Amino acid sequence: xxxxxxxxxxxxxxQGDDIISFGSGQPDLPPPERVFKxxxxxxxxxxxxxxxxxxxxxxxxxxxxxxxxxxxxxxGASEALDLVFRAIGKPGDKILLHKxxxxxxxxxxxxxxxxxxxxxxxxxxxxxxxxxxxxxxxKAVLINSPSNPTGRIQxxxxxxxxxxxxxxxxxxxxxxxxxxxxxxxxxxxxxxxxHVVTINSFxxxxxxxxxxxxxxxxxxxxIVNKAIDIKTHSSMNTNILGQxxxxxxxxxxxxxxKNQVAIWRERRDAICDGLERLGLELWRPEGAFYxxxxxxxxxxxxxxxxxxxxxxxxxxxxxxxxxxxxxxxALNVDKIEEGLNRIEKYLNQG
Length: 350
Description:
Blueprint: E1 20-21, H1 54-64, E2 71-74, H2 76-88, E3 94-98, H3 105-111, E4 115-119, E5 121-122, E6 125-126, H4 128-135, E7 140-144, H5 156-169, E8 172-176, E9 196-201, E10 214-217, H6 221-232, H7 240-249, H8 254-277, E11 290-291, H9 298-309, E12 311-312, E13 314-315, E14 325-328, H10 333-349
Parallel strand pairs: 1-12, 3-4, 3-7, 7-8, 8-9
Antiparallel strand pairs: 2-10, 5-6, 9-10, 11-14, 13-14
Helix pairs in contact: 2-6, 4-5, 8-10, 9-10
């Protein structure tokens, strides 16, 4: 029944020998080997510090040229986002999203009694004129670059315009940068300003999704302190074993990330070239590992690809893109090619 296509939850964790999953954005590459070396001798299992273990926050501060006290280590980037929404907002406040957006953004806002306002994009790129019009009256804006679900990066000039406008209007910028290390076209541009909060995690760069270690960073102490206060009474400390393994990941040489990016680029080319050969319109990803092709009858496509061809894809409407489906290419090239063959059969046969 296609009416079962209510959310990605029906596909998360679904596995099988003959299933090709272009669904969940979970890297299939292994974490750095060094993160496992602490396991035989690790014995610290008491409560940890609410903001996060000192060694990890110091390592992050060194990467960002900041202070350890500017960081809060969280249960993945999802908790970081939730804490920031709760720290900055009050019921009825508006938060600007650029569309298409990550499917969890609107529910997170709703859970916190905040209102989503969407600015349109052109081929996944923010239209600054539309942004300028809609941002007024908003408490904060949420930028995700590279983006899930589009894989697109925002233009540096646009990001600079957003920085200036939000500083002038005293609007907080929340920058979700969990894919910042996985960019194919240029170096990441890090948003900055008086009220900027950066969200990141170890899930994507280091393939450590299940460890649930993320963080927020800001030089706005009011936001950081409020987030710590909320976390004290909700989740308390983040898993300290996961934090210690994340600390080991911070020591990984830069070549590790470069090698990862080369693999993702090869996969990007394989899936995009294949989808274009099948006649599907798409915006070529510039980072992350997602592509959002346009397809006829997306709901039928997602349902029949799964039930008849054992291919998992995500419905574009979950991301605010009704005419499209999202594919994650977090799987090896052989599986990508097999998945493309099955998609071709669907397009030809239904």
